[in-house]
Amino acid sequence: MVAATFWAPGSPAGAEAGPEAGADRAVAAPKITYDKYSLMVDGKRVLLWSGEFHYFRLPSQALWRDTLERIKAAGFNGVSLYFHWGYHSPKQGVYDFTGVRDVDRLLRMTEELGLYVVARPGPYINAETTGGGLPAWLKNVPGRARSSDPGYTAAYREWLDRINPIIVRHQATRGGSVIAYNAENEYAVNTDRAYMADISARARAAGIDVPITHNQCCDAADWTTDWSTGQGAVDILGVDDYPQAFNCPDPRTWGTWGTGVTERRSREAPVYAAEYQAGAIDLNDAGYEKCRELTGPDYMKVYYKSNLVTSGATMFGYYMAYGGTSWGWLPQPNDVYTSYDYGAAITENRQLTTKYDEFKRQGLFLTTAAPLTKTDPASAPASSNAAVHTEARANPDTGTQVVLVRHADRTTDADESATLTWTAPDGSYTVPVRVKGRDAKLLLAGYDMGGQRLAVSTSELLTHTESGGRDVAVLYGKEGTQGTTVLRYATRPTVKVLSGSVQTSYANGNLTLGYDHQGLARVLISDGGRRPLLLLLGTDAEAAKFWRADDVLVRGTSLVRSAKGQSTIHLRADLAKAGDVEVFAPARGLTLNGKRITARRTPSGSLLAHAAGPKAVRLPELTRWRSAEGAPEAKPGFDDSRWTVADKTTTVSPIKPKTLPVLYADDYGYHHGHVWYRGRFTSDGQEKTVDLNAITGRKGIYQVWLNGRYLGSAAGGVQADAGDASTPPNPDPGPGHFTIPSGLLKAGQPATLAVLVGNMGHNDDWTAEDVRQKQPRGLVGASVGDAAITWKIQGARATDPVRGPLNNGGLIGERLGWTLPGYSDRTWRPAQSTITPGSSWLRTTFNLDLPKDQDVPLTLRFPQGSGKYRVILFLNGWNMGQYLSTGPQRDFALPAGILRERGRNTLALAVIAEENATIGKPTLVPVANHRGGAR
Ligand code: IPT
């Protein structure tokens, strides 16, 4: 049992305020309904703009709140949440929802922040996580996974019977946040309708009364089953779309997997882009920055905006908003490594990127302009240039139009101009437009913009607010392009250009403003029969500087978390550096993160203050490393009397072992991380080689000792059988043949073979064929000449009650608690940078004293050493990932909560070397430094 001397990550002190429903959820128990246009909350239409977040990839409750606040500040009104069965269940019948697994608390946070939730409990989730979310113990359960086979049915019902009640009590229909329930995940190869029907039936029986959805996948021929009708049908059938595929090494390619326009899959339900690509896995080790580029702002503009107009979608789930870290043994090893940054809008270390800016531009617009929740195809303005494509939808009740303007050829980055002849609800207008580079615009016509009437605009709307009896609206366009905005008035209004260059004219009730998008222009318009308007006209970049929180517009900070109050605005905001903060509100005073700051009123009617930036921080060097030998198990005299005897002759696995006994780690209850084997035999003096087969998952290795002598290592196999129909079985997975040095074995003498096998995580079951996820881990064959070998096996000692089932494997330091802060390494030697083949441990401590009111995300960087080795990194006992000297990842996130920002931290490194190696000295690297933070 691991000693409980560690510190658990932060539940902020103080009582829970309880669900504080978002603005449009003032009604305690609304009904969630839908029609072909949109979801409705008590009859009020909602455009669901949600981003995917994996709580299991961020083991810190304090950072859940931080990240959810960032997601909300990007203009999202919802999050899509997978729930990970295997993360909560170390063995059949055992479930844990405490600490970093406390999803009830996660859902409470979404309620406090006013974010809707699409709950996605699987049972299967894919998500590039071990087993695709299936617990590894399921390998020992007979019956095809993701089917209505009785063995599997009993298993998944166990999970649903625990997760469903949690989701049920957080439904929007009970004053909570959950607005939809997604059954299974891309279920289409194994078309077992009874299984799908049972998932829905169990959800309903548990009290799920929000719409049930499904994310259907791929236009590929296999994925044909239509889950919108018949047995197992769901209410709202969505589509998963990854039009850019995962071509990160070549980020300028477009549309590898098609045009990416989400189709209507259910006739009487809204169009749902269930998982729409918002990043990519780094399949080819190009690095996540390339994935971010592949799915960058240009792509987002063209593809996301098309979804709204071409397909009329009103439900969106962007995969991922924040990817996080596949810490511990969370990764599914064939596709990902520790970092699950995903090239997302918010980086693994919670930094905001240009993709975040684009989400904010689109998200604020879509959640501001209510007519977009109900639109039909409509005739578009005529374009004078065939290279400039227009397409439109209109709201049948208000007549409001939304027009998509893009290149006719989606892939071009040409610079094209056209004149639009636009029949708008308020009259006919002729306006110039320009599409410069890869771009797409959503233009409005006939829109009631607060107390104003927008006739047409070739600028895009960011958002508008009403405060103190006037409207503030932000419009924007690409830098250097021309913009035209026409507003309607009963009589000639008074126009005052406060800054920038804006030409205005008035005729027939139309106030026409002409300008170039350049910096930020400010125009005050009053009289004309309407309340005053402050119109802010900016570039894309200027638009991205605005934040909207609680109907207050703020400009100048790096992030705004909330803005509350009337006469004094209380801002919770982050700043990367000192600078001006501008708040568009009729208030008199301002506080920033709890402290009053001096503010003056500007000619724009806003409040302007100067805020200080963060103080510089100093980080300690990591010194005084100590080391211990890591493979005493290899010595013949090692006491393995308490290890498990490995003598099974049968297995549930569809993969049959090459030799007996069955040595699959999972069959003996060792599901994660390393396992040790010790085999004893009596030598006949004739043995020449040790012949092994092991399956580790991609990039895994195993190491072999005979009578204490290191014989070498070999690459573990990925799988014995390809797991899908397209690849033939592999009878020789992960082979290793080790020559026995002469004299090492003596006829008639006992011998000890020791094998350490890595387990990089379990394969997924994407195609629902079972055989892939049931691939064994560990030894699948072992022989030494004709010797009869008796075996013992040892993996993780017990499940860490705080860190969960995926934290530890069976390395000596894991079994004896060397990873934990409470362990004393006084007897260890000072460490050397050279390491010999085998396994060893390194440990050090460091103290931090980061300022309380600053957010300084840290990573641990491994410099390039020499030789082939890998390191499993434990921070205060938490397994934060695996560094491979062969790459690609060198920086490892140390999330606050696991990291003590003020106090002592313990680092323990398990080093596994395949050859003589030199390990470079790891360093602490600050990723950013902001004043503020989610405290
Ligand atoms: C889609 C899965 O639903 C999701 O879990 C994740 O694995 C994602 O892919 C890739 O990151 S499947 C889609 C690629 C066909």
From TrEMBL:
GO terms for biological process: carbohydrate metabolic process. Keywords: Glycoprotein, Glycosidase, Hydrolase, Signal. It catalyses: Hydrolysis of terminal non-reducing beta-D-galactose residues in beta-D-galactosides. Residues 1-20 are annotated as: Disordered. The keyword Metal-binding does not apply. Residues 8-20 have a biased composition (Low complexity). Residues 371-546 form the Beta-galactosidase domain. The keyword Signal applies. Belongs to the glycosyl hydrolase 35 family. This is beta-galactosidase. It comes from Actinomadura rudentiformis.
